Amino acid sequence: MKQFCRILFLLLAAPVLAQDIHWTQFNNNPIFLNPAHAGHFKEDLRLTANYRTQWRSVSIPFQTTAIAADAKWKQWGIAANYFHDQVGDGKFQTNELQLSLCRPFVLNKQHQLRAALQLGFNQRQLNSNAFYFDSQYNGYIFDPNAPTNEFFQTASMTKPMLGLGLIHQYALNEQISLQSGLSIFNLTRPNQSFFSENTKRDIRVNLFGQLHYQYTPELSFEPSFQLNLQGPYRAFTIGSTVAYLLSSKDDITLSSALWWRTKDAFCLQFGLSRGPLYTGISYDFNYSTLVPASRGRGAFELSLRYVFSKFQPPQLQYRICPDYI
């Protein structure tokens, strides 16, 4: 029984230890997608927040929160992002804090290249007292206060992290632009095991592409894809966003998107932006082999974005001449 409990714990934790979290609204979590997105927007300061909860119908839900801030500084883009994830009965937590520095290079009027470096740390912890083992059964009753006789080498660990990002942007004309990117994370290969063995976290490689097509002044399309490669795991997401400008006076835009994450889920997304504020909501409908347990339910995700612009006084187009001239 003891061996069974340990194996069960490892099986439940293995996907979390081996594979980073994925987001349905990856375009609304730009720094997590690629650190070269730091400062990659028209305004001066951008704040983003993302929340995801999944597999509520299977077990205790996985809950993930991410917040980020990025800005332009001279000729650089700078960003800071924080990530928190909690899983299961043992409240297995992952916390990450990372800083990104990006340098854009304008090649010509149509091409721009952005390169970024990301540094930070990863902290993981769990509550081993929340697990039950056979040693707590005395032959008659189960005593949750009895010792488990299990030894975890550590209940918390903090490791350094290193990532790189590269984005190429190509503006074909005023209507069509294309950007693609490559990012590499977990280059330090931090140890993820709470036992004595050394289980290195796999390097994650992310590829993405996004086409922006301004069909009319009011209507635009943004087909996108994302591919995550991490150890033996593959996650490919493809779909498109459609945005419609409802009011140019109030700067109100409605958007919707359909995503397909292969071998996993179909995802619906809706968004509303008004001025500097954007709100997005999405839901994943699971169709993988987990369906008997998930009953088709997947994940709920919420995203927020707010941008700030420095006040710029209006430029005078004329001057009043004094009377004596």
Please describe what this structure looks like.
By secondary structure, this protein is mostly beta strands. The chain has a single domain, classed as Porin, CATH 2.40.160. It contains three helices and 14 strands. It has a 14-stranded antiparallel beta barrel with strand order 1-2-3-4-5-6-7-8-9-10-11-12-13-14. Strand 6 and strand 7 form a beta hairpin.
Architecture blueprint of SSEs:
Elements: H1 2-18, H2 30-33, E1 45-54, E2 62-73, E3 76-87, E4 92-106, E5 111-125, E6 156-171, E7 176-185, E8 204-214, E9 219-230, E10 233-247, E11 252-261, E12 265-274, E13 277-286, H3 291-294, E14 297-308
Antiparallel strand pairs: 1-2, 1-14, 2-3, 3-4, 4-5, 5-6, 6-7, 7-8, 8-9, 9-10, 10-11, 11-12, 12-13, 13-14
Largest sheet, in brief, is: 14 strands, antiparallel, barrel
| Span of the ends, CA to CA | 100 Å
Number of domains: 1
Rg over C-alpha atoms, rounded to the nearest angstrom: 24 Å
CATH superfamily: Outer membrane protein transport protein (OMPP1/FadL/TodX)
Classified by CATH, the class is Mainly Beta
Please name the CATH topology: Porin
* Percent range for β-strand residues: over 45%
Task: Give the averaged pLDDT, no decimals.
Answer: 85
Number of strands: 14
> What would you call the shape?
elongated
Helical fraction: under 10%
* Class by SSE composition: mainly beta
The H/E string reads HHEEEEEEEEEEEEEHE
Strand line-up of the largest beta sheet: 1-2-3-4-5-6-7-8-9-10-11-12-13-14
CATH architecture: Beta Barrel
Task: Flag low-confidence runs.
Answer: 1-18
Count of separate DSSP helical elements? 3
